[in-house]
Amino acid sequence: MKEFDLIELIQQKCSSRTSGTLLGIGDDAAILQPDCNKQLVVSTDTLVANVHFKAKDKPASIGHKSLAVNLSDMAAMGARPKWVLLNLTLPELDTKWINGFIKGFAALLSEHQVQLVGGDTTQGPLSITVTAMGETSRAITRNHAQVDDLIVVSGELGSAAFALHHPRKSKACNKQLHQPSPRFDIADQVKSYATAMIDVSDGLLADLGHICQASEVAAVIELTQVPVNPVVKQAAEWQRYVLAGGDDYQLCFTIGMDDEERLPDDCHIIGQIISGKGLTVLNQHQPIAVDFAGFEHFNHD
């Protein structure tokens, strides 16, 4: 396989189409026509081998996850994805690996009706960069949480970090790590009343901290109210997995107290926004010391 064979293969396998695409793959640039009545939302993520995934992971799972993390950003903004760009840096043209990767990538494209409209291929250490573009009539940002708002999370937290350290313990946790599902089901239901929202990629403490910093507020959460898979609690480090593990790609958002009854299933209130700065963690209503934070690049201490 040569480079242009790879590009043709990707184009053939990623056949999803969406409205507003005037010109996709095949020229120097794509031509897109966003809805003039909506906001255009753009997100990009780079996944590097042995940093964000293990090089020996199944290629289909790597393909799925490289797209899923970007689509999760779209969900966190209350947007629906329409187009993506894919940049592949590969050490070699391994046909078996590439077919597996594209299978996982294309399946998620099709599931969410998103079109691949371009990208780039080059040789080097394995890394994948995806840029996603979507539309929304009302973007949900991090900077509008208000004092007395309730803090809510979807799904279960800590599963992905648990699977990373205990890969043979739980199929459900392994799926959360390798094949996360962007929570559009939740985002679509809460975007009309959520005051701030973020996806849990770097860990609950880090990501909720981003909301607090952007909104100039503080937060208090109760550990016993955070939804956790029972198998995760069997691990000695379960609190670290839940609070700082990351990679769950669930949603963390804030709502007004009057909107509690509107919450969809699979959502749990874990705390409240308060005035001040910082984040307090309670365990059975008692403050606990937390000596860890979420994932941060360039922090090797």
> What proportion of the residues form beta strands (DSSP E)?
25-35%
Major sheet attributes: 7 strands, mixed
- N-to-C order of helices and strands: HEEEHEHEEEHHHEHEHEEEE
How many extended strands? 13
Q: Roughly what is the average pLDDT, rounded to an integer?
A: 93
Order of strands, widest sheet: 8-10-7-11-9-12-13
Number of helices: 8
Low-confidence stretches: none
Rg, nearest Å: 20 Å
Q: Helicity level, as a percent range?
A: 25-40%
Structural class: alpha+beta
Alpha-carbon distance between the two ends: 42 Å
| Backbone shape | globular
Features of the shown structure:
single chain; 301 residues; alpha+beta; seven-stranded mixed β-sheet; four-stranded mixed β-sheet; 13 strands; 26% strand
Please provide a written account of the structure.
- The chain is an alpha+beta fold and 301 residues long.
- The chain is 29% helix and 26% strand.
- The protein is built from 8 helices and 13 strands.
- It has helices at 3-13, 59-76, 95-111, 159-165, 171-178, 184-190, 204-215, 238-244, and strands at 21-23, 31-32, 39-48, 80-90, 115-123, 127-136, 150-154, 196-199, 218-222, 251-255, 267-274, 279-283, 286-287.
- The chain has a 7-stranded mixed beta sheet with strand order 8-10-7-11-9-12-13. Strands 3-6-4-5 form a 4-stranded mixed beta sheet, with helices on one face. It has a two-stranded antiparallel sheet with strand order 1-2.
- β1 and β2 (31-32) form a beta hairpin.
- α1 (3-13) runs parallel beside α3 (95-111) and α4 crosses α5 (171-178).
- The longest helix has 18 residues, at 59-76.
- It is globular and about 60 Å long.
- The mean pLDDT is 93.
